[in-house]
Amino acid sequence: MLKKNLIILGAGPAGLTAALYAARANLDPTIISGMDEGGQITKTHVLDNWPGDVQGIDGMTLASRFVEHAKRFNTNIINDNIIAVDFKQRPFYLKGENEEYFAHAVIIATGASPRLLNLPRETELTGKGVSYCAVCDGYFYKGAKIAVIGGSDTAVIDALYLANIAKEVVLVHRRNQLRAEPILIDKLMKTPNVTFEWDSVVTEILGDETVTGARLQNVKNNQTKDLIISGLFIAIGYKPNTDIFINQLEMNEGYIKVKGGLINATATSIDGVFAAGDVINPNYQQAVIAAASGAMAAMDVKKAINN
C-alpha cells in the first residue's frame, strides 16, 4: 500500500506534462503509467504539427522526450494498471493490478483507445492481419495490398505511412469525402499507390488463420464486393479510457466532465480530482492540446492545495 500526495493516471502527453508542471511546483507527483507509457503518440509515424520541430518528429522520439523531461524533475513513474477507484472520500483510493494506492489529489490522463468495428472474428484476427497501429505493424506488409478504414486525420496519416511500405493501400470510407486536414488530403490524393472505396463499410473480415480479404457494402446501393487484401488497418477513432470512473465522476458520453472556464478548468465533479487530455475532449484530439491540458491540471492542483 503506497500513500502519495499527487497521483497522475496515464503517461501520455497530458499525464507527462502534468507531472512536469507538478514536479516544478514541488507537488511530488507519481505517475501510474498504465499499459502504454508514452500514449498514442508512440503509434504515430511523424508529427508534422508539433511546435518547434520544423522537420517533424516521430512519435516514439517525442514520447521519450516527454518521459525524460518528467524524470529530470524527479517524477516517480510506476508501471501499474489501475482497475478500480474510490473517490468518495480523501485520501482517494486506487486499486492497481500490482499495488494499492492512496492519494490526496488525482489527475486523470488515461487517454483513449482505438475503436473497433465490432465485426465477427475481428478480435480473433487482431495481430493476424487486423491492426490498429500502422507504425507498429506496417513493416509486416512490405509489398502487399492492404486497406485502411476511416476518413479522419488518423486514417489519412496511416494511409500515407503505409503507402511507403505496401504495394497498394485502399482507403475505405463510409462517406464520399474525407474529414482530414486539407494538407493531408492533398498529399494523399497525389500518392500514386493509394486507391479509394467511397461510400463503403466493412461488413465481414475474410480469412481463416490470417486476413485474406474484406467484404464491403456500399451504403448507398447496398451492393457488396470482396476486397482481396493481406492486412486491414482500422482507424475509425478512439474511445476514452474512462470505464473505471463510471459512478465515481460526472460524465458525458464516456468523457469526464470538467468545470472549464478560466479558473480550475480541469476540476471534475469531485474536489481534488482533475482530468486532462483525451478523457475530457472528443473534439481536439491533438498531442499539443493534451499537453496543454495536462499543464492546466497541474496548475489547478497547485491552486487547490494552496487554498
Structure, described:
It is a single chain. The protein has 307 residues and is of the alpha/beta class. The protein has 2 domains: 2-113 and 238-306, 3-Layer(bba) Sandwich (FAD/NAD(P)-binding domain), CATH 3.50.50; 130-234, 3-Layer(bba) Sandwich (FAD/NAD(P)-binding domain), CATH 3.50.50. Helix content is 22%, strand content 28%. It has 6 helices and 19 strands. Strands 1, 2, 3, 4, 5, 6 and 19 form a 7-stranded mixed beta sheet that branches. Helix 1 (13-24) runs parallel beside helix 2 and helix 4 (153-163) packs parallel to helix 5 (182-189). The protein is elongated. The chain starts with a strand and ends with a helix.
Question: What key attributes describe this structure?
Answer:
307 residues, seven-stranded mixed β-sheet, 6 helices, FAD/NAD(P)-binding domain, five-stranded parallel β-sheet, alpha/beta, 22% helix
Backbone structural class: alpha/beta
Radius of gyration: 21 Å
CATH class of the largest domain: Alpha Beta
- The name of the CATH topology of the largest domain is FAD/NAD(P)-binding domain
The total count of helices amounts to 6
Instruction: State the major sheet.
Output: 7 strands, mixed
Quantity of strands, as a count: 19
CATH superfamily of the largest domain: FAD/NAD(P)-binding domain
Topology as a string of helices (H) and strands (E): EHEHEEEEEEHEHEHEEEEEEEEEH
Low-pLDDT residue intervals, each spanning 5 or more residues: none
Fraction of residues in helices?
Answer: 10-25%
Mean pLDDT comes to 95
Shape: elongated
Strand content: 25-35%
